[in-house]
Amino acid sequence: MRGEELLVLFGDIDARYIEDAARGSSVGAHLRRLGAAATTAAVVIGALHAAGVFGGTVAPAVRVHPETGLPLLSVAEPNAPGGFEADLAYDISEYVNGAPWTTETALSTLPVYRNVKYSDRTEEEQQTMMETYLLELAGRLGLEEGTYTVAPQERTSSLMLYADGIEIWLDSMMTARITFEPALVLSEGYNVPTHGANCGTYEEILSAAGYLRETYAELLDMDQPIPNIMGGFYDFNGEQHYDISFYEGGGDVSQQIVACEFQSVTFFTGYDGSLPLIVLHNEDLSQKAGDYPVISWEEAMELLLAGNFITTVYDDIPAPTEDRVETVDIVYRFSAGNEYYMPYYCFRVELPEMEVGDLHRYGRYYVPAVEEEYLVEMPVWDGSLF
To answer: How confident is the model over 73-105, as pLDDT tens digits?
Structure first.
């Protein structure tokens, strides 16, 4: 769920995920009721703390399931600054996704994690952990001690490592962005653009992924790196794009889903097939809340069609119907402000009212994957204090 954030770093491709910036819409208006079993969490002050109104990250009072003792979960508000989440394609068959979950996958539970920002970890402990990881990445890149400097960034909780031709920016969510200046030149035949007018085919990009897996094996630091070629969608200029990511393929499918969502490595190639950026996700998952029972995608579809979803698609667009639902994936919605990281089914729904020429537009709608009895309905703060 982080491609939108990362690709904004490229000024020439930020339009992939930023939809209709001129048309504002209240995010709170798109939080749909999650059914009769969901109860209202009357912890307004805690919600304000979580939103940063009082300047700190303070968790609201924990409510637990009466039988299992697992914490009840609040549905995360959708977040699409300047527009809404949607994808463009001439046909949905162009979309590819190498994530480990498919509609044939049988799941009974999925893990939920608590954001460590809500734990008792001190700033000093967090800083030490970040510095340790940053130095580890320097070693995996072959940088010798004394050839780089590390400096905290003013007014943020991030760190920067500076070396000759390389910069690593590490944020508080343990996402590292490695930039190369000049961009790295890949071997002939593997310098395949993953976006733009000269975008490679899926087969060419998959071949390039094999080269990247071998060339950057030490940086990947995975026992069984699995390539995830994801995308096939277009921007408003009609240029197709893909992402090349890797995740750890060891363990069961639940572990693979977590690795794919939280601990992946993504390679971004430029229009000429060079390599200017590598992004490593290494979210701290030490605060596991537990393994939660999950519903099937068919049950999630029923909830979607009943109007039980969250979305950033505008309210004046007709609600999803079964004939408009094109794809379904499992994702984790998470950000620095969420107390818990929980799984959702992400449905792409065709929006014929919003076609762009011959390109069809597919809005994203999210249904919680955990069983409804583990959910509470968090009131949406409207900006007022009383």
So the answer is: 988 766 665 578 999 999 999 999 999 999 999
Cα 378 from Cα 386, distance rounded (Å): 16
User: How high is the pLDDT of residue 48?
Assistant: 35
Closest-CA residue to 86 (of 373, 361, 380): 361
User: Which residue segment(s) compose the domain that 307 sits in?
Assistant: 3-96+296-377
Strands 39-40 and 325-333: unpaired
- CB contact at 8 A, 143 and 178: no
Would you say residue 52 lies in a domain? yes
- Residue 139 belongs to a domain: yes
Cis peptide before 379 (omega within 30 of 0): no
Q: Same domain, yes or no, for 127 and 233?
A: yes
CB contact at 8 A, 263 and 282: yes
Do 56 and 135 have their domain in common?
no
Q: Are residues 276 and 351 in the same domain?
A: no
Does residue 271 sit in the same domain as residue 351?
Answer: no
Please state the pTM of the whole predicted model.
Answer: 0.82
Euclidean distance between the first and final Cα of the chain, in Å? 34
Whole-angstrom Cα distance, residue 190 to residue 179?
A: 19
pLDDT digits (tens, 9 = 90+) for 143-172: 999 999 999 987 778 999 999 999 999 998
Indicate whether 22 belongs to any domain: yes
> Would the pLDDT of 384 be above 90?
no
| pLDDT value of position 78 | 66
Angstrom distance (rounded) from CA 357 to CA 204: 28
Last residue of a domain, one of 281, 307, 339: 281
Taking the alpha carbons of 259, 261, 262, 268 in that order, is the dihedral positive or negative? Answer: positive
* Residue 257 and residue 154 share a domain: yes
